[in-house]
Design a protein that fits this description.
With about 400 residues, the protein is α+β, with helices and mostly antiparallel strands. It is about 50% helix and about 10% strand. The chain folds into two domains: about 180 residues, 2-Layer Sandwich (Beta-Lactamase); about 210 residues, Hypothetical protein af1432 (Orthogonal Bundle), CATH 1.10.3210.10. The mean pLDDT is about 90.
Length: about 400
């Protein structure tokens, strides 16, 4: 456990770290892990306010994670609870006050809320101490709830959360709330860009891009851990990759409606026009001023390249669309990039995009069965897709399925 001085020092550092994260999902993961470290909590969850409800948005649990093994992700589904006094999180949001419960199974009957033990029974966990904190913005409005579960001593025995940690975690909650609001603003801006694309192309929906982004993040993180990439670098890349993956098809805003909304097969000329969305999207992020710009350009340009070199747009000059020197075929067209010539994030988003496209219903097709989708991906390994990344995808298929449930089509 950290002592008081170490906690205060870490609190200042955390404030700087969370302020640098732009993606909402990556931020929630960081906030929860750092809050748990501050008070040595075994588990925790974050709820985000949506209207009159709290949406269960992120969770962590070291005990359950240990049972899965280090290479497996904890699977969870989202749900909503009303903001009222009937639940602990609802009470904290409704009254904007902290709740410190030593034993969830011995809550006084004088209190209006009770503990729902259904989760404990389902997974074999035992919740005891609970510290639940309102997340309030600079206007003193509650935007969510941070719930920490099962404080531990140095021997990992479950203890009550210390009273002296309450002001510390409230201070942390202020940092977190401000960062969440900034990330929500960034997410809203990105979703407005997606909405612009959706006006042109009905396939570019909010759930679709969120799924593609979430799949991409899981593939990258699993790949990076296999390659022993430092956690600091993984965290920095994840933040930008998730946003970039959401914008993989943003170049379609410049493609004609006649092509985008055509229900049938494209003519050769129409297909050539459609392929330009990769170059047009990449141009939006040229003159990179951040890691995000670099990754967004990489993803937009390369997510339709193929491992075997038969993808597009190939080796092109982004500004002109012309083949780069020495990289054109007999017809004068750019030669496709292949294998490691395709940047990593382009290879990752390619898998995520195809997986979601095949799994989803479209105006021109029904959703494929999961068996058909997985067979297509397996067959595509070494041809369309990076075979190593396809293996990683299948190693994490349970997480991919949970993402589908988390972001259903509306």
């Amino acid at each position: 456990m950290l002592d008081r001085k170490e906690k205060l020092s870490r609190l200042i550092q955390i404030g700087l770290e969370v302020s640098q994260i732009s993606d909402l999902d990556v931020l929630l993961e960081k906030i929860l892990s750092e809050a748990r470290k501050l008070v040595n909590a075994d588990a925790g969850s974050i709820y985000i306010k949506e209207g009159d409800n709290l949406k269960f948005s992120y969770t962590q649990n070291d005990t359950l994670q240990a049972k899965l093994g280090k290479d497996k992700k904890l699977i969870y589904t989202t749900f909503s609870i009303p903001i009222n006094n009937n639940s602990i999180a609802g009470f904290v949001a409704n009254n904007a006050k902290i709740s410190n419960i030593p034993d969830a199974y011995k809550i006084s009957e004088a209190l209006p809320f009770s503990f729902n033990s259904d989760f404990d029974k389902k997974v074999g966990y035992h919740t005891k101490s609970m510290l639940t904190v309102p997340l309030k913005n600079t206007r003193n409005q509650t935007i969510g709830v941070l719930q920490l579960i099962n404080a531990q001593d140095d021997e990992d025995n479950i203890i009550a959360f210390m009273d002296e940690d309450e002001p510390l975690i409230m201070h942390f909650a202020n940092y977190a709330s401000n960062a969440i609001e900034r990330a929500q603003l960034t997410r809203t801006t990105i979703m407005r860009m997606i909405s612009m694309a959706e006006l042109r192309d009905p396939k570019e929906t909010g759930p679709h891009v969120n799924r593609v982004a979430a799949y991409s993040l899981e593939i990258y993180e699993a790949w990076a851990k296999k390659k022993n990439v430092p956690q600091e670098e993984i965290d920095a890349q994840k933040d930008s990759l998730r946003m970039a993956a959401m914008l993989h098809d943003v170049g379609k805003v410049a493609i004609s409606d006649i092509i985008l909304k055509k229900p049938g097969k494209f003519t050769d000329e129409e297909y050539e026009n459609m392929k330009l969305h990769t170059i047009l999207g990449a141009r939006l992020f040229q003159g990179a001023r951040s890691i995000f710009d670099e990754i967004a350009e990489e993803v937009a340009l390369n997510h339709h390249e193929r491992w075997d070199g038969n993808g597009y747009p190939g080796h092109v000059n982004i500004e002109t669309g012309d083949p780069v020197k020495g990289k054109k075929d007999k017809k004068g067209k750019p030669v496709g990039k292949k294998q490691s010539e395709i940047p990593l994030f382009g290879r990752i988003v390619s898998i995520a995009d195809v997986y979601d496209a095949l799994s989803s219903k479209r105006v021109y097709k029904e959703a494929w069965s999961e068996e058909q989708v997985l067979e297509a991906l397996k067959t595509g390994g070494g041809n369309q897709f990076d075979p190593e990344l396809i293996d990683i995808f299948f190693e994490n298929i349970d997480v991919m399925r949970s993402i589908q449930e988390r972001y259903p089509d509306e």
